[in-house]
Amino acid sequence: MAPRPTFLLTLALLGACVALTLGVPCKPLNDFFQQQHLDFPKTNATDSNAYCNTMMWDRRLYFQRTHTFLNAPSEEIGRVCEEGGLASGPNQHTSRRSFPITICSFSFWGISYTGIATTGKLVLACCRKLPVLFVKHMQDQP
């Protein structure tokens, strides 16, 4: 059975909602979010493909179909859940500005990652003004 990103996103959002409902402390969820997605200053690599291969293995995110790294300071990312973002759904905020990101995609044929460095607005799930889940990015319009 092939990975289903929409299904996985739904499960992740459901988990975040359950955690919020049950009163799970937000700080551990934020710590996990930062470990999974934040990389600032951005790790040096020869190109975006090398960056993704290095980061995905170093962070033990093996064989994920896609993953996004946020290449901005944690303080700036955190502001998305406060004044730096707009409410866009239950416990979700969309950033007012774009951030540098790197999107990593896994190639099952080559058993490696390809990377694209770009910028985009972020949609994050927040818990008590802390980011706890990366929902998606919205590509900048040219």
Would you report the number of β strands?
6
| Rg computed from alpha carbons, rounded to a whole number of angstroms | 15 Å
Number of contiguous helices: 4
Annotated CATH homologous superfamily: Ribonuclease A-like domain
Describe, in plain words, how this protein is organized in 3D.
This protein has 142 residues and is an alpha+beta fold. It is built from four helices and six strands, in the order αααβαβββββ. Strands 1, 2, 3, 4, 5 and 6 form a six-stranded antiparallel β-sheet that branches. A hairpin with a 4-residue loop joins β4 and β5.
List the defining traits of the structure above:
single chain, 142 residues, P-30 Protein, 4 helices
Structure summary:
With 142 residues, this protein is an alpha+beta fold.
Please give the structural blueprint:
Blueprint: H1 5-22, H2 26-37, H3 48-58, E1 66-70, H4 74-78, E2 85-89, E3 92-95, E4 99-107, E5 112-127, E6 130-139
Antiparallel strand pairs: 1-4, 2-3, 3-5, 4-5, 5-6
